[in-house]
Design goal:
Helices cover 4% and strands 50% of the residues. The protein is mainly beta. The chain has one domain. The chain has a 4-stranded antiparallel sheet with strand order 4-5-6-7, with no helix packed on it. The longest helix has 4 residues. It is globular and about 45 Å long. It starts with a strand and ends with a strand. The model has no long low-confidence stretch (mean pLDDT 81).
Length: 102
């Protein structure tokens, strides 16, 4: 199995059957917009997939099939910047660096 991100969104590619399943089909009970334009992808030390998109940051936990969405919150100085998340970097101190463009 491989996870694939593109401007068409995120999905799972099954190598043995050569089939692609969109994330929207994997998360049948999700209330989030999962048809996202993926700009950047990184896997953290906990095997979670982080995705930068045109509308913020997503974290997909493959083990429990859960998607979480992070977006700019004007009243929260600790939220991510507004704009498209174009690059992600996980440093050796366990911090996720997020680069955005508005």
């Amino acid at each position: 199995m491989a996870l694939c991100g593109s401007v068409l969104g995120l999905g799972r590619f099954d190598i043995s059957s050569q089939t692609f399943t969109p994330l929207s089909k994997l998360l049948a009970d999700s209330t989030l917009n999962v048809d996202i334009e993926v700009w950047s992808v990184i896997v953290d030390p906990f095997n979670r997939l982080w995705m930068g998109s045109q509308d913020g940051l997503y974290r997909y936990d493959v083990e429990v099939n859960h998607l979480r969405y992070f977006t700019h919150q004007p009243d929260n100085p600790h939220s991510i910047n507004k704009g498209t998340v174009i690059a992600l970097f996980w440093d050796n101190q366990g911090r996720l660096w997020v680069s955005s463009y508005q």
